[in-house]
Amino acid sequence: MSILRSKWVALSPVMVAVVVLIFSLVLVPTVHPKPQKLPVAFVNEDEGVQLPNQPPINMGKNIEQAIQNMAKSNAAGKDQPPIDWMQVDSENKAKKGMDKNTIMALSSFQKISARK
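RE: above sequence
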């Protein structure tokens, strides 16, 4: 039997192409995964600061309001937001949620005591 006339030699490139096609079709959804409703806790312990001759500044509160506005605008859209922001009272509660896998990440603004 000639090696070129063997049906296995003729079919092997086709079989390899079929296996590669199957693997590529299986892996397509995992190439660009998009997180959906990833629970992230937000803890704001910032009390703000009063500078002389200026209005009080509270960056934690400003960022908290920006996150809430962003969450509301994303909820009104067609796509689900990738992050589900959750307001938590204390960092300890957020860490307990992380231990139970109900919270995946934590964003925290700590109290900063400025010297006078």
